[in-house]
């Protein structure tokens, strides 16, 4: 047989090698079998995988497994030693398999188990072998059987169970008193399809627990007899009916029976009502029922023809707590005069604004929950509460509520808790709030800022504003002194202000994480304040994360340290100004001690000359020239010219020829004639400028220069050497050419420092150096 058996290899290595042909294959490929990462997971769902056998090593890699679901498989035998590798296993579901026996010796391997569900297997009897006594932590046990004997539960009789589940659909034999062995808080049974002579006394033993759950009840008529029989015999105080499909009027009958019984709390989960939907007259005298909870109702009949609404069965009920949830309820009639409702929970329905309008009878209601309905106008809900003088808690979250400014707004003054989360509330809400509120939940709405209206809430202790559109931390000065909790998580706050945060320092818990923080200098103050207030700041530092700028996205605010310099405008300014001053000082010293400007001027002049030479036809300008330079100077500067200028230019090598009037002027001519001749015969003209020169010589040139506009286009034939500074006042107004020269500073300045003389001469020589085809001095005649 073994090779036809489909064997489950969970061990991964083996898994990949031998996958083909395993019937559990679908579960391997589906999400059911977690990948390696979640091997650390605590939960594993292997239900409906057609598993027929568990390999001994199967759970070796799942050391942390706490919850294992093996239901709806095809296990025929089970050796609990496969669980020896998972000592932390707490919940094991092996219901709906094909087990016929339990290997009792191996039960020791699941000694830590708290939940064990063995129901719906092929066990013939419910016999629990003595080894079950070792499962001392067991709290929830699921079983099912065809036959139950008197000693079947003996081994667990000393255990205090929370729940025992008994699937007894196919019960054939029940030995009276068998269940009396059990010690459990809750008994959950699926009733036998019918009682026979051999199982007749089953219900007599339902008195073992105070809570009884009956599931899968289906009956068309006389359901009340079955339930009545059970209730009567069991004296339970909590009755739970789950997955029931019965006519509406049978439901009424069951309610009526429960009303006159020991049952205090009745829960009906997953109730499908069929056949009829009509008003049922009800006897409300002497009820013991305190609360009724109905969840998940599937109505198969909608229309009713009765004069009174069928739902008055619930609204007229004289009980403290009523819950009708997920029942497609659009409306609930206003309760009768003598109602004692304290808590009404009508969540997950389709209730509209008309609910309880003008309903004055809810005079002891304290807790009202309309979560997840289709309420729209907040003003209607507010005025509804004005009739409820004792209402403390109102939950209208998950509706479509908005507040229209123009509508009047009156609330019950007793209201302390208001949950308006997940609606369409905007800033106008602050004009419509009950004054005595202590807790206000406005999460997930469309609030942009907090209005002054909030100052009226003098008792406010907790304010929830996460997931709105706030762009600033609200001014805590607006809030009551009692405010202890302020939640503005997940808003649009970019640059929270340090001042506003400081104002909130009396709030014990502030939640302002997960906002869109812009990490720049402005945030610095906030961050340091946050560090100080971190005891109050919930989620600091891990939920305070930079959103902008892009390169800082994801950085924790605590780790954002912009430099002191880049953030402090004064330091920054000081730094810039300081640098400039320093530069100026350096410049000043350079100029003062090294005369940098002089060098620069020299270099510029040299460069300019180079440039001009390049761009000019040199040949033309030297035609007919006999001298490299003509020198003009004042007699007072004769010494300098004779001893410095000429020797340094001529250098004794004849490469440069100077026209020096002392030796080169032709006698018999006027000075002017001589000068003009000399200038025209010379490649360049050098003027040694000094105060003396201006006073004594310049008069000869001024006119000539003006006539030939030499300072205009041909100024590069002129070389002006400033021997001594010439103060402006020394230059007479008529010398406009000279004034222009001095203004433009197109002269070479004679440096007083010896060190600079070399450069000066080199520059000067360079200026007048050219290849003049010099003729013999004797032949040279002025014409
Ligand atoms: C289990 O086996 C049944 C019949 O052999 C088949 O119809 C079903 O698809 C299988 N389910 C899985 C999860 O392999
Ligand atoms: C056991 O399994 C059955 C069927 O899956 C379920 O109805 C019952 O609630 C379970 N009982 C416990 C105690 O887990
Ligand atoms: C059940 O017991 C009653 C008497 O207690 C007897 O009249 C009836 O015939 C029995 N029914 C069956 C099916 O054995
Ligand atoms: C339950 O009923 C049986 C008789 O049917 C009785 O012997 C037992 O004492 C009762 N147990 C409780 C807890 O009332
Ligand atoms: C009834 O309602 C009150 C007030 O909401 C609550 O404290 C109490 O737990 C409820 N009781 C039941 C059984 O639902
Ligand atoms: C308000 O209702 C929402 C669900 O609608 C819930 O998550 C939230 O906890 C409630 N607020 C308070 C303060 O209980």
Can you offer a commentary on this structure?
Belongs to the Toll-like receptor family. InterPro entries: Cys-rich_flank_reg_C, Leu-rich_rpt, Leu-rich_rpt_typical-subtyp, LRR_dom_sf, TIR_dom, Toll-like_receptor, Toll_tir_struct_dom_sf. The chain crosses the membrane at residues 569-591. One of its GO terms (cellular component) is plasma membrane. This is TIR domain-containing protein. The termini are far apart. It is elongated and about 170 Å long. Helix 11 (596-614) runs parallel beside helix 19 (757-768). The longest helix is centred in the last third of the chain and has 26 residues, at 569-594. With 783 residues, the chain is an alpha/beta fold. It contains 19 helices and 29 strands. It has a 20-stranded parallel β-sheet. Strands 26-25-27-28-29 form a five-stranded parallel β-sheet. Mean pLDDT is 83; it is low at 1-23 and 775-783. Among the domains are: 290-436, Leucine-rich repeat, LRR (right-handed beta-alpha superhelix) (Alpha-Beta Horseshoe), CATH 3.80.10; 457-552, Ribonuclease Inhibitor (Leucine-rich repeat, LRR (right-handed beta-alpha superhelix)); 567-594; 625-780, Rossmann fold, CATH 3.40.50.10140. One 2-acetamido-2-deoxy-beta-D-glucopyranose is lined by residues 204, 207.
